[in-house]
Structures
1.
Amino acid sequence: MQYSESMRCIKFSGSKSILQRLLAIQAICRQTVQYQNYSSCADVLEMQTALLQTGFSSRVGDGVVLYPDADVPADNHYYFHESATALRLWIAVCAVREGQSSVIRSSDQLIRRPIEPLLKALRELGADITGEGGTLYINGKRLTGGTVSLPADISSQFYSSLILIAPTMQQPLHLKIPADLVSRAYLDLTMDLVLACGIRYTADSGSVSIDGNQQYQLDSPMFIEADWSSAAFFICLGTLLEDGLSCELNYSYSRQPDAAIVDILLSLGAKIDIHADHLEVHQSTLQGGMIDCGNNPDLVPILACLALFGSAPLCLNRISHLKYKESDRITGITAILDAIKADYTLAADALTVYPMHHIPPAAVLETQNDHRLMMAGALLCRFYPVLRLSETASVTKSFLEFWDILHAIDK
């Protein structure tokens, strides 16, 4: 990631959502891939560490190259610290690694993140998984396939985990997709990736079917598009800066859910010039409105804080699943708003934030060690020096160079 002061242009590392899914695919097909525009954020490194423990090696040259070793360990032990995505995807990967046994342990933080619906579905498909709490024992085998359903209100990662391993199954996998599935756009991203990697499937609005006995084919080298979840912070910041910001992003082809930040801000009156390879974000006074956040839970904290600088109330709708994230983000956001004496109303599935017309009192903004809450709080600290964050390290989970870029802008 780079920042050019002369152009006020930010270049972003590769999408962690894409990389984590690709590393799961690579573990399944055991092919060599040279990744360009790789991200070394903590979430990706957790997935990479697991891959290396299962018989891969790495080298750094023109990008990051991950390649399979000749010897594949029969017994594997993994530990996941922070990344629920990595944990969920890797449980599914281990379930289909024939002849290999795995022990997966997770931190106290991850134990609080739901995985039971995924375990239940895997067992219905024939997986040999035992254990509970923070330790799982998995004997890899070829799963049967079949029809399964999952809850709609917790995480689309359960669906993505099954889709990624479906090509290895004996029979087709049929997944029912509820109309009200939260973060549906992340499931669509997974489907795009498996298609790009040579997997056939059929889908409609209510289901997806993937044939078994298929082989992944990964391109190499593979360029990873910029991370829109990281970029969203600086796009929002640019609407508040007198000179705006330029971000090196290709909006026209991205299927990352958080690329929606552009349309969201445009709908609120932001001035954003969209070019083939970058965005120019101009200082803007944002209007109010209602935003459906069902597909974009990571945008809720930053939008809630940005709304304080607007001209009218902003309602963020379909947010109930935020309580299942790294922290209870609903509680976390409202705690930040309370600390600065901001006005808001909270309903069962919506948060309405009102423009703030006062200087907030001195306060420590509690991040709950959640990277999205920390970045949202950093936006407020940028404009109100009386505020500070309870910690600043959690951002390395997703955005390793966050502070370097922010400090460079402020010089």
2.
Amino acid sequence: MQVKKGAQILVNLTNDAWFGFSSAPYQHLAMSVLRAVENRRPLIRAANTGISAFISPSGKIEERSPLFVEATMIREVHPVSSHFSFYTRFGDVFALLFCAVSMMILLWCWTRTTGRDNKNTQAHLKNIHKALE
């Protein structure tokens, strides 16, 4: 992650022409907002077909260009040298921990129901066998 290496401003250069007038450029803008917030850094997004934007560390879109409209935007952006955010420090540790705990719970539930179902199935088969005799 560049922020850990000292980046004070994030820049996102992109080619969204592939997606035309679909929702993809708007989704990419939303992802840029999340990237700015999770790292607590201002983000400058420059897209050849729009949507270009200036995004504050809090996620506010300060200025943006429309989709497929030629535009020039000039804005003063101040570097941020604040402390690292939780995400910058630890990355996906929380998500990985959540996945590990979820897998353990699922495994525990599966082992409990599998054993019980197996016993019930065996008892049911014995009853069927007795009925057929």
3.
Amino acid sequence: AYEMATVTEITPYDRLPQITLDGVLPVDAGGLKFSYSTEFVRFERDLRKGMFTDEDGATSPWYDTRIPGLARANGNRIHVEPGVSLPLDWSYGFIKPSVKYLYTQYDLDLDQQGKNTLLAGQEFNSSEDRSVPIFSVDSGLYFDRNTELFGNQYKQTLEPRLFYL
């Protein structure tokens, strides 16, 4: 037999502290726009230990004691996302090419129960990272014309847009 634990029965991660810093650098270098997004966050959950007594008086171990392997990990995450774009605008349309670099680094720790319950072939690495370059182009055109409908004058617009990521 087995038991299904619902999400509300397992202690969620706390995200404390979480520090986020986003912005655009006030530099005008030939129309280039420099942006950044950074985040530092500590993911931690205080897994409950021991037993609890339910409303019927039955005693059972906390569901947290049954969480195995990597699901017991706590750690820090640092995310850095610098970017540069060149927005070009005209009366008939726009184009905005941009380049970003996403870097995320994790520093994890795992308690002894988590290490003892790793699945076969599963390894614990206390430091993981990823690097992802991103290139995108956002572009669009503006088509306007005056039109009349039921004796009223209107301006009809059509704005097709193409976004490549």
